[in-house]
Fold this protein.
Amino acid sequence: MSISRRGLFGLAGGLAAASVAGCGFAPSTSGGAANNSLTFRWWGGEARNKAYQSALQIFTQKNGTKVDPQFSGYDGYFNKLNTEFAGGNPPDLFQMDTALVSTYAAKGVLTDLGSFIPSTIHMDTLYSAVRGAGVVDGKTYGVPSGSGYAPVLYDKTLFEQAKIPVPADTWTWDDFGRIAGELSKAMGQGKYGALDASKDDSGALQPWLRQRGKDLYNAEGKLAFTKDDLAEWFSMWDRLRKAGAICPPEMLANTDSAAGTHPLIAGNIAMTTGWGLAQMQPLTQHALDIVVVPRGSNGKTGQALNGGVLLCVPVKSKNPEAAAKLIDLFVSDVDAIKAMALSRGIPPSAKALEALTPSLSAADKRDVTYSQYVADEVAKDGLPNAPTAPPGYNDAKTALDAAAKQVAFGKMSIPDAVAQYFRDAEAALQGAK
Amino acid sequence: MRTKKKQAHWRAHAVLIVVLVAMIYPMVWLVGASFKPENQIFSTMNPFPFAFTIANYVSGWTATGNSFTVYLANSLTVSLCTVVANVASCSVAAYAFARLDFAFRKFWFAVMLGTMMLPFQATLIPQYTIFFQLNWINTFLPLVVPYLLAYDTFFIFLMVQFIRGIPRELDEAAELDGAGHVRVFFSIILPLLKPALLTTTILTFIWTFNDFLRQLVYLSDHSRYTAPLGLNAFVDRASGSSYGGMLAMSVVTLVPTVAVFLVSQRRLVDGVANTGIK
Amino acid sequence: MSENSGVAVLDPPVEERPPPPLRRKRKRHKHNLAGYAFLAPWLIGLFAFTLIPMVYSLYLSLTKFNLLTAPQWIGFENYARLFSDERYLQSIRVTLIYVVTSVPLKLAAALLVAIALNRGLKALGFYRATFYLPSLLGASVAVSVMWRQIFSRDGLVNQILGLFGVQGADWIGDPRYAMWTLVLLSGWQFGTPMLIFLAGLKQLPQDLYEAAAIDGAGRFTVFFKITLPLLSPMVFFNLVLETINAFQTFTPAYVISNGLGGPIDSTLLYTLYLYLKGFGSMQMGYASAMAWVLFAVIGLFTAVYFWSARKWVNYAD
C-alpha cells in the first residue's frame, strides 16, 4: 500500500493554495520604518473599528501618511502589547487603558508628549476635566480619545411592568435600595431589582467615596479611604442582599466583561452600574435608559469624568511626529470627528460635540444630553478632579472584586474581607512602584 | 436471528442518538442564534430563530474592516502549510526514535517529552524576541517554520507509539533485501503509518485553524489576520459589539474544519479499515 | 503480523521474546549516523526555537521582571514566595481536582465511543462526525457565550431539570459547581483522544479477532484480552498527553470565567493564574517560577507513567 494519488493531489492543491496566499510569508511592507507610514494599534468592537478606520482614511488624505491599522478585541490585547514591549518592538501609536497609563509611564516606556503640545496636539480644545487623564507626575503621556460618566443603566420595560416610576436624576443611595427592593418584590421569584455593585470600583464605589469627600486613590498613588469606609460600603450592600433587593452573587459571573450574557439582557435584573446604552440596547427588545449614579445625602453626584481610552506613543515609536499628528486628528479634526460620530464614546471636547450635534440619532442625542447634564451637576459638586489611577491599579481593582465576592458568598466576614482588601491592595500599589 | 440482530442495532442507534442530541445541542443553539436578530440572541432562550434573518452573515462578512474571505484564506494558508510541515518533520523524527539505535536516544527522547511540560506562556516572550531578531514578525513564518522543524513534539510521540505498533519483522525483511533506512521509512513505515498521519493531519489542521494567542502575537497587519483574529474584533466591553456578526462568522469559520475532518476521517476509517496490518 | 507477538499479547506474563542482548560497558550503536540524520530537523528546531526560550525563562524565574524594564536578579526569591501566596495554593488545589477528574472522564468517554464507532453500524460516519464536532469548536468567544447560555439559571440544563421538578442551580456562577462545568466542557471535547484511539484500533491485526471468534470468546473477553492490551500504547499515549494538557489547561477557563478564574477563584487553574500574574500583573519573573514548578510536577507524573508502563504497555516491536 502506498500513499494514494488522491492524497498527493490533495497535498499539491494545498501547496498551490498556499503559494497564492504566500505573500503572507514576506516581510510586511507597511511597517513603521519609513517617514510616511505609521502603525496604530487599538482594541475595539465592530463600531469602533469602523469609526477609527474611516478617520485614518481622512488622515492619509490630508497628510499623505499611510497608517497601518492594527486592531483586535480586548482579549489578548495587553498580552500582545506587553510581549512587544518586552521584545523591543511596540507599535508607533497605541490605544491605552486609562487605568494603566501610569503603570507604563512609571517604567519609562512612554513618550512625554509635552513637546508636541500645543504646536501639534491642540489639547486646549479638550474639556479641562479630561486633559489630565493621561498626565502622570505632571507630564502628559496620553491624550484621551473619548470621555464619559458611568451611569446606572436600567430596564424601562421592567419598571413599567412592575408599575414603579423610573428613578429620577436626584435619587440617593437610600432611594436606590428602596426602589431595588420594590422591584424585586414586584418582579417575582428569581428576579431582582439591581445588580450587586459592591465590587464595582469606578462605577459605584468611587462616586460613593467622592460624595463623602474621599476618593479611591490620592495623587501619591495610595488608597484615599479608610477601612471604616469600606466596611460601611460592604455593609450597605450586605443589607440589600439580605433583603433580596439585589441579586445573589451567583449572578455576578462574568458581569464585567460580556454584555451578551449579562443578567440585565436576560431580564433577571432591572438596574446595573458600569454599563452604557450603546453596548446593551442592541441586545434586547426591552427599552433601556440611563440615570445618574445615586447621590450622597448631601446631594453631590461624586462623579469623576473618565477619559475613556487614551492614545499613547512608545519611546521606541519609529515615527513620533506622525503619531502626534494622528493624535491631534482625534482631538481636533472636524472631518474625522464627524466620521467617528459617537462610536468612540462621547467626544472629549465641546468643539467636537458642536460639530456632531446636527447629525445625531435620537439614541445618540440621549447620550449627549445625559453627559451634558452630568457635567453641569459635577461642576456644582465643586470637587477636585480624580487623580490618574496609580501603577498597580489593576491588581488593586482585582482585590476589591475578590473581597466583595467573599462577603457576598458568605465566605468571609466584613472585617476580614476589608482587612484582606487593604493588605492586597496596598501591597499591589506599593509593589508597582 | 436476523430480527434479533436488527433489534440490537436499533437499540445501539437509539442510545447513540440520545447521546448525540446532548452532544450537539450547543451547536444547534450556536447555528440557531446566528440566524436571530441581534436583539433576540440573548433575550430569548429558544434555540430556533423564529424571526429568521441572514443579516448577521451579510453584515458580519465585512464588519471588521477586511472581508472575512481574506481571514479565511490566511487561516487556510497557515493551516495547510503547518499540516504539511508537521506531518513531514514529525514522521522523520519519530522513525529515528522508534526504530534507530543511536547514542543518547533515551536522553533525547526525554528532552523531547520535556519540551511539552513547560507552559507556552512562559516562553512566549523569548520566542517573540527570536522571531523579531529574524525579522519574521507580522509574517506567517513564526507560525509555520517551527513546524517544519518538528516543533510540536506531541506528534513525534504519537507517531513513535504507532511505529512501535508495526512489527519489526517487516523492516528486518526489507533490510535483508538490501533496503536502507530511507527506503524502509518510505516504503514500509510511511504506508503503515497512514492512520497516524491522517490523525496528525486532522489535529494539526484544527488546532492551527483555531489557535488564537500565537497568531494574535505574531500577526499585526490586518490584511494578514486569520479567522480567529477576525472573530476577536467583533466584541468589545466598552465600544459597541456585534454578537450577531460574531456568531455568524463563528459558524462560517467552522465550515473548513468540519470539511477537513469529514474528508480525512472518511479516509482514516474507510480507507484503512480492511487493509490494516496483516 | 507475526504469530508470537500476538500470543505474547494474549498471554502477557509469559516472556516469549529472546532476552535483550547483554549490555557491554562501551555501548555500540548501530545507527548513529542515520539516527542523527533523521533527527536533525527536530534537533535544529529544538535548539533554535525551544531550548533557548526555555533557558531564558529559567533565568527569568530567578529575576524580577516587569516586561517593560530589564530583569533584576533576585535568586530564588520568586520560588520562596510561591508557597505563601494563597491564590497560588488555591490554583494548585483547583488544578489537581481538574486533572484527576477530567483526565479519566475524557479518556473513558473517548475509548468507549471509539470502540462503539469502530463497529459496523450503519451511518457511522455521521455519528463520528457529530461526536467530533464539539472538539472542532476549540474555545472561542462563541463557545463561551454558548456554554454560559446553556448552564445559566434559565438555560437548557435547568429547563430539563425543571421537567423532573428539580430546581437547578446557577452552574457557572456558583463556586460549588463552576469547576464541574469546566470538567464537563473538557469531557465534552473528547474528540482528540477518541480520534487517536480510533486510529489505534485501525492498526490492530484483524487475524487475532478472527481467531478469537473461532475460539468463541465473548465480547468482554475479546476486549480485555485482545483489544485493550493491543491498544495499550495508545492508552498510554493519551494518558500521558491528556495529563500534561490537563495540568496546562488554559483556554477552557476563558470559556467559563472570561479568564479571571471566578467565581471567587473556584476555577483558577494553574496556567490561568500564571498568565494573570505574568501578563496582567506584569510579574513575569514570578510567573516563570510558577512555570518551572509546574514543569517539575508534570515531569514527575510523566516519569511515574513511564516507569509503570513497563508493566502494562505492550509494543509489537
Summary: Chain A has a mean pLDDT of 85. DSSP finds 16 helices and eleven strands in chain A. The CA atoms of residues 129 and 385 of chain A lie 7 Å apart. Chain A touches chain B through 69 residues (CB under 8 Å).
